[in-house]
Amino acid sequence: MLPIHEHLAELWTIRERRALTSEEQADFEHCLAVNASHCRRLANLYNMSLLASMTDDTEWHHEICGKIEKLDGTPPAFRGKNGQM
Question: InterPro entries given for it (predicted)?
Answer without folding.
Answer: DUF7667
